[in-house]
Amino acid sequence: MNPGKDVVLTIARDDLQTIIDHCNAGYPDEACGILAGKAGRVEKVYSMTNARPGPVSYEMDPEEQFRVMKDIRQTGLEMVGMFHSHPDGRAYPSGVDVEKAYWPGTQLPNYPEAVYVIVSLMDRAVPVVKGYTISGGAIREVPLAVV
Amino acid sequence: MAIKVRIPTPLQKLTNGKSEVECAAKNITELVDALEKDYPGMKDRLSEGGKIRRFINIYVNDEDIRFVSKEDTALKDGDNISIVPAIAGGVDNG
Fold first, then answer.
1. pLDDT tens-digit profile of B65-92?
2. Which of A61, B6, B22, B64 has its CA 20 to 30 A from that of A55?
3. Which of B10, B57, B62 has its CB closest to that of A109?
């Protein structure tokens, strides 16, 4: 995905619900996952283990992440995004979310093609889900098209 | 036969856009030095004080080097190395 271009992340309602369910299951800790698909369309949701669980932190289990990324390549898909929850925060990247989106000590985005989906559970009855690209020192919202 | 190294997107500027390179090394420390020789700047990206940077994960075939021998993890011809940035975040600095 080319930051600056008008982009949308398309996701099926069931897949969106899978994301929300996984985030609710992890509550009050942050939960996380990977979104596989093609051309900005989510085709598969991988619910991941948070290896550094806490209400204000997540780190995908590295070996699980490696296996999933390999699986995505082998099935001919791409990592179109990843998601994590903010159990008590808004659906917007935190400072650490942004810092960790770049290679350590640089402004080189780790996953420039991916949309960072954030699920806010501040109001658990009404989760707020938003997507962003984090690249080139900028955070840009990517609208989610739920189909 | 050499060792194949999968290069993640943010480091591909150093490899002239190549997503996979080959090199020869007997362990991870030598691998970092070999990459630095061919692609200057790589050592600083990958390591700090001789250790692989936190939030950068390296796999030899399917094994995370942290669970083998870290920087001393032995390599042999035909191994496939993957360099994978962690996916993490949060509001602390832990």
1. 999 999 999 999 999 999 999 999 987 5
2. B64
3. B10
**For residue A41, what are its two tokens?**
């369309």
Q: Which domain holds residue B76?
A: 3-85
Handedness of CA A55, A59, A64, A68 (dihedral sign): positive
Determine the length of chain B.
94
* Predicted TM-score (pTM) of this structure: 0.93
Domain edges within chain A: 9-146
Reported ipTM exceeds the 0.90 cut: yes
Cβ–Cβ under 8 Å, residues A129 and A141: no
Q: Which residues in chain A have their CB less than 8 angstroms from residue B53's CB?
A: 104-105
DSSP state letters, chain A: --BTB---EEE-HHHHHHHHHHHHHHTTS--EEEEEEETTEEEEEEEE-BSS-BTTEEEB-HHHHHHHHHHHHHTT-EEEEEEEEETTS-SS--HHHHHHTB-TTSS-BSSTT-EEEEEE-SSTTS-EEEEEEEETTEEEEE-EEE-
Phi, psi of A144 (to 5 degrees): -95, 125
Q: Which CATH superfamily is domain A9-146 in?
A: Cytidine Deaminase, domain 2 (3.40.140.10)
